[in-house]
From TrEMBL:
<feature type="domain" description="Malonyl-CoA-[acyl-carrier-protein] transacylase small">
    <location>
        <begin position="150"/>
        <end position="211"/>
    </location>
</feature>
<protein>
    <recommendedName>
        <fullName>[acyl-carrier-protein] S-malonyltransferase</fullName>
        <ecNumber>2.3.1.39</ecNumber>
    </recommendedName>
</protein>
<keyword id="KW-0808">Transferase</keyword>
<keyword id="KW-0012">Acyltransferase</keyword>
<dbReference type="Pfam" id="PF21124">
    <property type="entry name" value="VinK_C"/>
</dbReference>
<dbReference type="InterPro" id="IPR001227">
    <property type="entry name" value="Ac_transferase_dom_sf"/>
</dbReference>
<dbReference type="InterPro" id="IPR050858">
    <property type="entry name" value="Mal-CoA-ACP_Trans/PKS_FabD"/>
</dbReference>
<dbReference type="InterPro" id="IPR049416">
    <property type="entry name" value="VinK-like_small"/>
</dbReference>
<dbReference type="InterPro" id="IPR016035">
    <property type="entry name" value="Acyl_Trfase/lysoPLipase"/>
</dbReference>
Amino acid sequence: MTETQPEAQPEPRQGGTAVVFPGMGPFRFTDVGEFLLTNPHARRRLAIADEVVGYSVFDRYRQSDAEEEGQYAEHTQIAFLTVCLSLADWAEETLGERPELCAGPSFGQRAAVTYAGSLPFEETVRLTAELARCEEEYFRQEHRDAVTHCVIHTPEERLREALAELDDEGEWHDISGYIDRGFYLVSLREPVLDRFKKRIGELGGYNMYTMWPPVHAPAFSALRRKAEEEVLGSFEVADPRLPIVADASGALLTAADGVRTMLLDTFDHPIRWPDMVETMRGRGITKVCIAGPDNLFGRVTCTGENFEVVAIDARKAMRPRVRQRSARRARR
C-alpha cells in the first residue's frame, strides 16, 4: 500500500489577490441580460454553452425569468456560470487583475475549477447540466420536503437551542453552511420551517431566504454517491494551474484528486467560508475580487474585515471606461 503524498503548496506572497466566484443566489435577467447580450466574453462563452446543451441558454433564461420560475433550473445555473466567468475574463483584460489563487463557495466552485484550468468551460457546462438533472431526480424521490434556510444575527448558542428543540421533537436537521459569526445555513423539513423561523425570531435572530433544492447537508450522502457514479465519473479533472481554496475545509488544492473531492463534498459537507477566509489570509491575500452576482460572501463581516473587496459585476463591466491614453491627455 502506498501512502498518499500531501499536495505541494506554493509559497505565500503578501499583498496578493484572489478571485472569488460567489455561490448562486437569486439573480434577475434584468441585472445581467444586457451584459450577456453585448459583452464579447459573455457572447463567446454563451455560444459554447449553447452548442454543449443544444438550446439557447439566453432565451431560456430570459423566458423563465419573465415567468418568475426556474430560479435554480439547469439553464439558469449555466447562465450564472457564464456570467461569473465572463466577468473574470473582463476583469483580467480591462482591470489587469492577475489573481494568485481562486475560490468558489457552494455553486461558485464550478466557475473556480474552470478558471483554475481543472475543467474546460464546455465540460463544466456539461457537468452543470448533468448535475442539475441528477439533483432534480434525487429530490423527486428522497428528502422531498427538505429545504435549506438562511439565518443571520443568530449567535451559535441560540441556534443550538433552536436545533435542540427540533431534536426533542424527533425532527431532522443539518447545518449546511457556516458563513460568518451568527450566520448559518440550516437544512430541515419544510413542514417545520415556519415554526423554526418563528423560534429564531424569538431568540433574537433574523430569517433570510429559503432555498430549494436543499444543499450541503450531511444527510445527502446518497446524492453524493449518485453524482459520482452517474455524472462525475465520466469527467477528467486536471491539476489546477491556479490553486483553489476548498469550500468545505479551507484546504488549498493544487492536485486533481483534491479538486474532484471538492466537487463531491459539496453534496454532503457544509460550506465553511470563515475557513476559506483564513486560508486566503495565510497565503498573503489582501484583496479579493468577487466575480459575479453576489449579495453574500463579499458583504459579510469576516470578508470586509480581512480584505479589500472589489465587486466585479455586470453593472461595472457595462460602464464606459476612459482609455488610458485619453485619461493622460485629460490630466495635461
